[in-house]
Design brief:
The protein is built from 12 helices and 5 strands. With 270 residues, it is of the alpha/beta class. The chain has a 5-stranded parallel β-sheet. α3 runs antiparallel to α6. The longest helix has 28 residues. 26% of the residues are buried. It binds adenosine-5'-diphosphate and magnesium ion.
Amino acid sequence: MSQTAHPPQILLGHHLKALRLPVFLREHAKVAAQCAADKVDYGGFLLRLSELELLERERKGAERRIRAAQFPAPKTLEAFDFLAAPGVNKKQILELIRCEWIDKRENLIFLGNPGTGKTHLAVALGAAACQRGYNVRFLTAAALVNALAEARDERALLRLQARLAKIQLLIVDELGYVPFAKTGAELLFEAFSQRYERGSVLVTSNLPFEEWTAVFGSERLTGALLDRLTHRAHIAPIEGQSYRLAQRRRNPPSKGDKQPENIMQPVGET
Ligand code: ADP
Ligand code: MG
């Protein structure tokens, strides 16, 4: 059958699919009716449809980037209670969520005690970066070191490093909970060095910089690492008491209540 034998609607459907314009396909009849009612001309009709298509494309892109980032749990800035966290500089966080530092390939370091909201804020900032079109990956420091060590053992380190190089914001959570073996420390150092001024790193740690040597083992390595990491970096102290602990004090489980499982976990475990 020749193409012209198709009714125009079917042909239009084929073309819009071939052009990958699913919103045009789904919405054109409805938007056409609205435009007729609003006396909007062809140009206006096309504008409305393309805006809808663009919005959907952006939304899907953000969803895809958020999935790819592999955040441990969805967290937003709206859900962060700044009143409960007087040790957090709200103005600084609101500035950082605009993501200009990621454009400038600067780093961000959250330092503070366990349970104070470091991971929460890191995820919220990471998700905001995904919304703005940046590629993000969230890993704990231990997971990153494991992935690097495994890749090296399988002679796939270059491939992993190339993948990491495409990430515009690498979030390394919980640096300091587990000290690294010598090779692990060296691999992490290399990963940070490769990003230096090429891509942003967001690190969260429960340890002040003075104690990072205990994590990396070597004073020389730690010095070189801190030198790169903190050059062009925003340091955000996340001070205060554990939010989890405060919540439990506010809502203690009444006697006879079945205790939630995580109540037995030591504070600070995520
Ligand atoms: P950290 O990473 O500093 O150990 P988390 O970010 O994991 O702490 O916070 C512990 C828990 O408390 C999380 O469920 C987090 O969402 C919540 N939380 C911490 N601070 C706040 C806050 N100021 N407002 C709302 N939730 C908070
Ligand atoms: Mg945490």
